Amino acid sequence: MKKICECPQKGVVPREREFMYTEEEKSGMNHEPNKCNGTNEIKKYKRDDKELYLCSCCYLFGDIELPD
Ligand SMILES: [Zn+2]
Ligand SMILES: [Zn+2]
Question: Is the pLDDT of residue 1 over 80?
Fold first, then answer.
């Protein structure tokens, strides 16, 4: 099954990480809340009390990676 990024915030690709992504990936990652189309390295993370699948762009410092 293809995993989808569940980022609950508005997404912005940080300037210093733009080089890591293709135009297509960036267009998916500059997103409205819950509408990230990023597909890069989606993993499960724990943020506060929630478990979220996040792409490598939406992962934030402090999110705890969980075993899938
Ligand atoms: Zn995001
Ligand atoms: Zn994302």
Answer: no
The 3-state DSSP class for residue 66 equals: coil
Q: In what order do the strands lie in the sheet with 50-54?
A: 50-54, 43-47, 64-65
pTM of the model: 0.79
- Centre of ligand 1 to C-alpha 9, Å, is 6
57 C-alpha vs ligand 2 centroid, how far in Å? 6
Whether 21 and 29 have beta carbons less than 8 Å apart is answered as: yes
Which ligand lies nearest to the CA atom of residue 3 in the structure? Answer: 2
Cβ neighbours for 21, distance < 8 A, ≥ 6 positions apart: 13, 29, 40, 57
